[in-house]
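Memo to structure team: turn this sequence into C-alpha cells by end of day. - J.P.
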Amino acid sequence: MRATIIVIDSFGIGELPDAGKYGDTGSNTALHISEFVKGDKWPVLKTLGLGNASMLLGNELNGCEAIDCPVGSYGVMKEKSPGKDTTTGHWELAGLELTEAFTVLPPEYPSFPEKLLEDLVRESGRGVLGNKAASGTAIIDELGAEHMETGKLIVYTSGDSVLQIAAHEDIVPLDELYDICAKARVLCDPYTLGRVIARPFVGEPGNFTRTKGRKDYSIQYDGESLFDYLKKNGVNTVGVGKIGDIFVERGINDSWHDKGNPACIKRTEDLLSKSANGNEFIFVNYVDTDMNFGHRRDPEGYCRAVEEIDEHIGRLLKILGEDELLIITADHGCDPTFRGTDHTREHVPLLVYRKGSEPVNLGVRNQFSDVAASVADFLGVSGFPKGVSFL
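Reply from structure team:
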C-alpha cells in the first residue's frame, strides 16, 4: 500500500471566513488565475473534480468547470491553525495543529528585534542590510551592489513568519551562508519565527538572479507528525523537495532535496513508477507556483506551472494501482492578482484518487489534519490523534 500527498504550493481556492483578519478579503488564487487566463485549462485536475471543489464555495473556475462525473473525490479544507505560511500549512496537513501563530514581524524598517540582529552580526561576523519586509527579487536589486561592496548580509522578512538572508555566492560562499542560517535558526527560536531561509544569488548589479541553492530552516515542532507516527509503525516515509526542511528531517526515511518543479516532478514519477517498499508514504511539494509566480504576481506564469503539474498528474494516473492513494492539495494561497506580494489566507482544494474507488463529495472540511488521518487510515495504522479520516 502506498499513499502520496502532492502539495501544489499556494494553490488556494477561496478566502477563509477569517481572511479579513489577515487583510486577505477577496483573495482566491485558483479563481482569479482562471479569470485572468482565458480558455480551457488544467484538464486532468478538472476530471479529478477541481471545478466541483470550487463550486462548494460558490465559485465557477473559468476553463476548469465542475463536471457531472469526476474520477476523483473532491472537497475543500479550512486551515484550523492561525497563519498562512508554508510551515503552518504543511504541518497541519501532517497532523500538527498550532494554537498560536508564529511571530510575524512588522513590514517597515526596522522589522527585526535589535538584539536578534546584534546576535546575528556577532555569530556571522558580518553586518546586515535591509531589516524590512520586501520581495526577494526586489531587495537584491535594491541592495545587491552594496552587499557586494561591503560583504554585509541582506536580511529581510515578509508577511510570513520568516527571516531570510540573501547573499551573492561570490561574496558569501554557499557553505558559509548555510552555516550562518543554521546559527540564525537557533537565534530565532526564542522569537518563535517559523523559518530561516538561505537565499543565494549570482550576477552583476542590474542583472541579479536567485539560484536553486535556497535552503529552509524550520523551527522544531512538539509532538508527533504523520511522518513520526507512520515511521514508528513500520511505514517507509519519503519527502520530496522542501518537505525534509519543513519537517526538520524528523520521521523521514528518504529525503530527496530536489530543487524546483521539474526536478521534483521527475523524482515523483521515478518513485511512483516502482513498486512500493512495503507500506509507503510519500509527501511532495511543488514550490514554483508560489516562489516563482505567486509572490511575483504573475498569473500567466502560475497558470502555466499548474498546467505542467496537471500533465504530470495525468501521467501518474496511468501508473497508479488499486493499492495506491493520491491526494492533491495546497498549503495556503498566494493570489497573483491580489495586492502586495504575500501569501493569502484561503481554503485549499482536496482531490483524492484511488483507482477503482467510487468518487464522492468530501464537502468542506474543518482542518487540514483530515489528510493525515486519512493517510494513516489507508495505510492501516490506527489511532492517529488528529483529524477525521474521509475514507
